[in-house]
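Chain A, query sequence.
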Amino acid sequence: VVLARAAPQPLAMAQVIMEADGMEFGRRCQLVSPPPLSCTMQPRGQMQAARREQTRAHASERCGAGLGAGRRPSGEIWEGCARLLEQLVTMAEADGHGSPFHSATRPRESISCYTARLHRYFGCSPECYVVALIYIDRAIKHQPGLVVSALTCHRLLACALTLAAKFQDDTPHGTRFYAKVCGIPAMELGTLERAMLSTLGYRMNVHPEEFESYRAILSRVASACIRE
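Chain A, predicted structure.
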């Protein structure tokens, strides 16, 4: 039995950036759907572990390649993530509808400083920022009214990066640790995690080609940061 999948759609974030400042992401940034799933007799836990290891191996290889000698790959990746979110916030026409990811008031800390704080204390691998970006993009495409704005960007990043670190790095840290770093009560962060997991349909795996498309976006934005 083969489960049908929807036709590939352009990256929501890449579309916004292309329209705003003409960055040529068109050919490279098409969302590549994973191959059709087929039923097997392999236990579910083993299947999930195998997919996770495949994604982790590919992500580590790609994030560690081509980022320039003498620079830390994680630095470029997280800086690209911060700048991309910053651009999306400035381009948001509205804050969208109320959701668990909406703050009551605009946080005083900029998204760039907030990302730097998470990078400093999370200690997660560079590929986690790519996976987190993928989770955010999936969420805003599957939840009407959810946009990356000044009221949502901090909570979206905190939740997505926490999930990515737990799933991708198989980290020993618990929710309380991440909540303290993010500046969010542990119970509230748990609520955000459940909300995002539900929005994603508990689809946490990332196909290697999909990962590469998003990694290319972050690397390009990070390179622009260095030139500035």
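Strands lie at 2-3, 37-38. Confidence is low (pLDDT under 50) at residues 1-10, 16-48, 60-75.
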